[in-house]
Recover the amino acids of this structure.
């Protein structure tokens, strides 16, 4: 095998000598310059494709946010009696104005007390009037709150655990799981997308 290695080394060396003798330095510099320009073009095309993918992700996340917001205003109150409609109105006031979901210890029993009804009737109103159960309703409001914070430049350096606590989650794992279930990506990924968006807006 050493014979073949020796031959290969000699051929490589001879080729190098041939090239340096055949072409003058200016010609070699021109070749290197052309190769460098080709590499730069390839890198530029790749960066443009990466940017397009990022913008596509941003658009998808905006659509997810919009869908989530629309889900929170779902109304099937035509299926509720007059008393249930009063409960639904009180429920919305507790969630949207008083933001009781920010309390990590909030239970359906406590929410029912705040709304002024019992657990059974509240469950019925949530299921029929909003098309979901108690846990998913509270989580959606909490995720909605976290979306606002993760999109705000003021909170870009805040720890995700702290963001979750601000939104009513008792630990980072619960926040991570709930956010990914609703949005399809992690809170960190969502915030990074918004960081890039803000950076782009400032550069333009």
């Amino acid at each position: 095998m050493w014979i073949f290695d020796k031959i290969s080394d000699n051929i490589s060396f001879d080729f190098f000598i041939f090239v340096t003798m055949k072409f003058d330095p200016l010609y070699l510099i021109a070749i290197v310059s052309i190769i460098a320009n080709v590499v730069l073009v390839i890198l530029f095309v790749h960066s443009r494709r990466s940017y397009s993918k990022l913008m596509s992700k941003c658009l998808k996340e905006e659509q997810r946010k919009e869908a989530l917001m629309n889900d929170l205003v779902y109304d099937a109150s035509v299926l509720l009696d007059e008393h249930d409609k009063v409960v639904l109105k009180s429920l919305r006031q507790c969630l949207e104005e008083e933001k009781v979901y920010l309390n990590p210890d909030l239970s359906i029993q406590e929410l029912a007390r705040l709304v002024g009804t019992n657990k059974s009737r509240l469950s019925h109103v949530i299921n029929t009037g909003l098309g979901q159960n108690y846990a998913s309703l509270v989580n959606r409001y909490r995720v909605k709150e976290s979306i606002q914070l993760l999109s705000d430049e003021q909170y870009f350096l805040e720890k995700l655990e702290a963001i979750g606590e601000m939104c009513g989650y008792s630990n980072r794992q619960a926040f991570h799981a709930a956010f990914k279930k609703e949005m399809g990506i992690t809170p960190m990924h969502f915030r990074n997308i918004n960081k890039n968006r803000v950076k782009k807006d400032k550069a333009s």
Residues 80 and 86 are 10 Å apart (CA to CA). The radius of gyration is 30 Å. The longest helix spans residues 25-72.
